[in-house]
Amino acid sequence: MAVNTRILEFKNVNLLTLRLILRSTDFLSIEQNLNDFLSTPNGQLLHGENIVIDAYALFQPITWSKLVELLARYKISVIGIFTNKGLKPSIEDAGFKFIELPNSSKETSSASIQSNEAPKPEVSSVKTEQKPVVPQPIASSKPSQNLIIERQLRSGERVYAEGGDLVVIGDVSAGAEIIADGNIHVYGHLNGRAVAGAKGDTEAKIFTTHLNPSLVAIAGFYRLFDGDFKTDALGKAAVVSLLGETLQFNPLRM
Fold first, then answer.
1. Looking at the 3D structure of the chain, how many domains does it have?
2. Residue 166's domain spans which residues?
3. 154 in a domain, yes or no?
4. Which of 27-41, 64-78, 118-132 is least confident?
5. 40 belongs to a structural domain
6. pTM for the structure as a whole
7. What is the pLDDT of residues 65-88, one digit of tens each?
8. Are strands 238-243 and 206-211 parallel, antiparallel or unpaired?
9. What pLDDT score does 140 carry?
10. What would the mean pLDDT of 177-189 be, rounded to a whole number?
11. Do 67 and 154 reside in the same domain of the chain?
12. Residue 157 belongs to a domain with what CATH number?
């Protein structure tokens, strides 16, 4: 029997989500790292987000319910848990969803085995400012294309140009987020978060006629504008690029 599309309909959707990578089964260390990080200005950007837990590097289960409860204190919801199949029963027995991701931490896991060293207690979210926590797009077969938005993006809106550049003709308000696998162009005030080269393109750039963001990121390297960071490009037409592992802020010659 066919579904009545006037009532409901099933359609494919591409979602952006954050991935929390675990490299230790020491729950006390995980708890301390998470509490410390999520209380910082960087960590507060994640409050209210949906995430996937990537536990592929673990070979022993942890108390999944405690970790989920800990994240819930910061209004962070867990969509599912990705790990090796050996830990799948413990995840399902705890009542959580076992999922698979195209970009896993398998490389990290293999390196730990070959070195014969125990992984250091670490949560991937707890990084320096050069190691970001940014949305990692889930791959799809959708054709690559550029995306043009001809309006203001308001707080709470999130736009993703998969496989191409994103052009916004209008302001990007504080609290809005724009993401592109390629370059980002904002012909207006960039006041929200901008993530270019979301799938690792180090040649991607961010162009704007007025730079005043809360965060910018290129290929996984980011800069948080929290009052401590100063640049002559702030409040002006500017281009943001990546040189090695450092973001560069330069005037945009119109």
1. 2
2. 147-251
3. yes
4. 118-132
5. yes
6. 0.52
7. 999 999 999 999 998 888 877 888
8. antiparallel
9. 38
10. 94
11. no
12. 2.160.20.70
Q: What is the spatial distance between Cα 254 and Cα 249, in angstroms, rounded to a whole number?
A: 15
What HEC string does 75-108 produce? CCEEEEEECCHHHHHHHHHCCCCECCCCCCCHHH
Asked if residue 237 and residue 158 are part of one domain, the reply reads yes
Residue 91 Ramachandran class (φ > 0 left, ψ -120 to 50 alpha, else beta):
alpha
H-helix or E-strand spanning residue 210: strand 206-211
Local structure of 185: helix, strand or coil? strand
Looking at 94, 117, 132, the residue that finishes a domain is 94
Those residues whose C-beta lies under 8 Å from the C-beta of residue 27, and which sit 6 or more positions away, are 62, 63, 66, 67
Question: What pLDDT digit, counting tens, does each position of 208-239 carry?
Answer: 999 999 888 898 888 888 666 778 888 999 99
| Residue 103 confidence (pLDDT) above 60 | no
Rounded Cα distance between 140 and 46, Å, is 24
| CATH number reported for the structural domain that contains residue 34 in this entry | 3.30.70.260
